[in-house]
Amino acid sequence: DFNFNWQLGNGGPNNWGIGFNGTYVSEYKLTSEGQVFDGAGSYNFSNFGYPNADLITNLKLDWQRGNHHARATVRHISGLKNDLYPLNPGTQDKSFDKLDLLYEYTLPSKESTLTVALLNATDAEDPINQGDLRTTTSFVYDLRGRMFRLGWTWKH
Question: pTM of the prediction?
Fold first, then answer.
């Protein structure tokens, strides 16, 4: 795992921040029917292991000015190898990248915050997993597509 955060608050009205975090799995050893597999970065069709991306990262940029806060986050999940090719020929070995956007406004009373978010702003589609009765790997990738979120938080 790795994590980096840097805040730029030069005393002016605008404060900026950048962050980068993620996980890298170098090895995911599995033993199935007497055979050893490295399941990192694989769908693991040929064994009992779960699909396991070997690299997941998030890069975020924050801006804050007074009661306003905005954030853009790029999320990356590396592609998974089809370890049963040529079986499951329609399974895609591609990475999944999405952009999340968030805006928050804290009311002058400081007791309420209004939030507007656009998740998966580019409407990126997760890689196709052609197997059994499924077309996605929902515990690795987010299959929901573009989403809008509105929120109101009240602190009392």
Answer: 0.87
